[in-house]
Amino acid sequence: MRKSGITGICLLMLLCSVAVFPLTASAELTIEITQGVDNPTRIGIAPITRDGKSLPEDVSKIVSADLQRSGLFRPIPRRDMLSFPATTKEVYYRDWRILGAEYLVVGKTTHRGGIYEITFSLLEVHSAKVVFTKVVKGSNTQLRDLAHYISDEVYLAVTGIPGAFSTRVAYVTAAPFNGKMRFRLMVSDVDGARERLMLESKEPIMSPAWSPDAKQLAYVSFETGRPAIFRQDLATAKREQLTNFRGLNGAPSWSPDGRQLALVLSKDGNPEIYTFDLQSRRFTRRTKHFAIDTEPNWTPDGKSLIFTSDRGGSPQIYKLGIASGSVERLTFRGSYNARPRLAKDGRTLVMVHRDQGRFHIASQDLVTGDVRVLTQTYLDESPTVAPNGAMLLYATKKGSKGVLAAVSLDAGVKFFLPARFGDVREPAWSPK
Amino acid sequence: MKTQLVKYGVIATLFSMLLAGCSSTDTSDTSSSGGVKTMPSSSVATGKVDSSSVSGSSLDSDSGVARVFYFEFDKAILNSEARAALSLHAQSLKANPVNIRLEGHADERGTREYNMALGERRANSARDFLIQEGVNSSLIEVISYGEESPASMGSNEESWALNRRVELK
To answer: Has residue B145 been placed in a domain?
Structure first.
């Protein structure tokens, strides 16, 4: 009886205030590139087919879009191509030199027992040389993954930087429904495809954060009437409430080894940073200051936390050594620097920075101290760096609508990911 | 009112605990609704300690005294109007103790979690003032919504001024 009562309450909770979902497909975001580099690399991506027959997903079109979105490539439109080679032997380099292509990608597919196998090659057009030939396999539902894999390999070979096309992004949407706001936690591929609903609630959802293995999300949900931190498994939708303290329960951030969360609690009177050990379930208070301490994020070595504090009179970024407890101020330019994130190199800090009354995303080199404002959009927040450190996503306003945008860390490439409906906010780029 | 609130609190806590142990969250489970009837639906609707279940009955809403107090950007200092109104609320609360909820909010500028902290700091200012005026602290619950629940949807000075607020409920 007691057991069925518990099940009943759980089900009612889901029906009444939140609904939780495993990873399954739905609508898509579309992408608008607003700025690329001055001389993007010209590349031809010949159609990848199965003996001339088209695939359920247009793999070469996905590769083409990936590379174009990086801002570093200008793919040759298919309609301009003079030939459609599928293997290196079928390539007439002259056809591609005429088009000004520096590189060419060709590939062919086989399909056996529900498994697609794509053999693909990257060729250098001017020297008429094969850079590499590789094979990638996947199931019927993984054609997009195969395409992103090809993009990653091409990007690495040409730029020397690992691609981040196979990654995902979590974000929150808010849209009115029957006169009340409806909040959703979503996950999509980083190109906006395969958007999936993770959680739906009538109360706010905030601060999604990926586990280092990219299999779980931690986030803040107000579904109990107060903010509380949850974690949710992406594949199964199984979830767990981690905190239920009086006051703030916010800003979760996973440690690089996945064993702890840094988070913010105000149960002792004002916002302080704690770490929570997921195994022992123990909370350890890490800051002791009457000011606001919030938005913790781990350094890649797991030894320090960077965070926002207004202990100096305005919000600035500080670094806390976990073992020593010593605190060091990192930002000095401007009167508002907040919500720090570090690139994987541990050296490039990105943050929300107020510049002449406007909120932009800025980066700071922690070695040289150089600060650079990366965005010119309006009310920018929530920067999140790609695992390869080449780009960051952030939330901004376009008209009165919240949208996601991307900018390269050198500020050379910019694009928007507009939502079709409602406000999109708080992107979190998956670590892998 | 007080016992009701306590009950709601207990239910909310119970829910949180149960939710933590509620592993099967796939929505396909909703068809097996055998256990649903064991909980009266009214207790679920009120179990959420949200604003609608408390407002109206917590203080005499006919008094005409302001229940929303406004703040400067990145500040949590009560202005003289807010202090005057809170003084009147304090007198009423001392004469007729009821549970109240102070909801702190921020405008959309700046970062979301910092604004959560700022909303709480604003609500705490109002709480501290009421306590100073002699109100029993156990009557007051503070919650911050940060910038997540704006009163006005615009991205301009007028909307921002309306959104930097504490609501007494």
So the answer is: yes
Domain edges within chain A: 38-159, 168-429
- What sign does the dihedral A162-A167-A170-A176 (CA atoms) show? positive
| Interface contacts (A, B; CB < 8 Å) | 177
pLDDT of A272 above 60: yes
The pLDDT score that the predictor gives to residue B19 is 41
- Which range marks the domain in which residue B42 is found? 2-48
The Cα–Cα gap between B34 and A124 comes to 65
The answer, yes or no, to whether residue A27 has pLDDT greater than 60, is no
Residue among B27, B145, B155 whose CB faces A379 most closely: B155
The torsion angles phi and psi of B108, rounded to 5 degrees, stand at -75, -10
pLDDT at B57: 37
Q: Is residue B68 part of a domain?
A: yes
Q: Does residue B56 fall inside a structural domain?
A: no
Rounded average pLDDT over A343-359: 94
Query: Is the Cβ pair A292, B114 closer than 8 Å?
Result: yes
Q: Locate tokens 């809403």: which residue?
A: B61
pLDDT of residue A32: 66
Q: Is the pTM of this model over 0.80?
A: yes
Cβ of B118 within 8 Å of Cβ of A295? The answer is no
Q: How far apart are CA A394 and CA A417, in angstroms?
A: 10
Alpha-carbon distance A25 to nearest alpha carbon in chain B (angstroms):
15
Please report, to the nearest 10 degrees, the dihedral formed by the alpha carbons of residues A232, A238, A244, A248 taken in order: 20
In chain B, residues with a C-beta closer than 8 Å to the C-beta of A424 are: none
B142 and B80, same structural domain? yes
pLDDT-based confidence at residue B30 (cuts at 50, 70, 90): very low
CATH number for the domain spanning B136: value is 3.30.1330.60
pLDDT, position A90: 97
Confidence check: pLDDT of B25 > 80: no
> Best residue in B73, B75, B114 to probe A by mutation, most A CBs within 10 Å?
B114
pLDDT tens per residue across span A110-143: 999 999 999 999 999 999 999 999 999 999 899 9
Q: Are B144 and A239 a contacting pair at CB < 8 A? A: no
Q: CATH number of the domain at A168-429, please? A: 2.120.10.30
Whether residues B76 and B154 share a domain: the answer is yes
Q: Residues 16-55, chain B: which have Cβ within 8 Å of A? A: 16-27, 29-30, 32-39, 41, 44-45, 48-50
Distances (CA, A) of A318 to A271, A288, A314: 15, 13, 12
Distance from CA of A290 to the nearest CA of B (A): 11
Q: How confident is the model at residue B6, as a pLDDT?
A: 40
Same domain, B78 and B156: yes
B159 in a structural domain: yes
Domain count, chain B: 2
Write down the CATH number for the domain with range A38-159. 3.40.50.10070
A349 CA to centre of own chain: 16
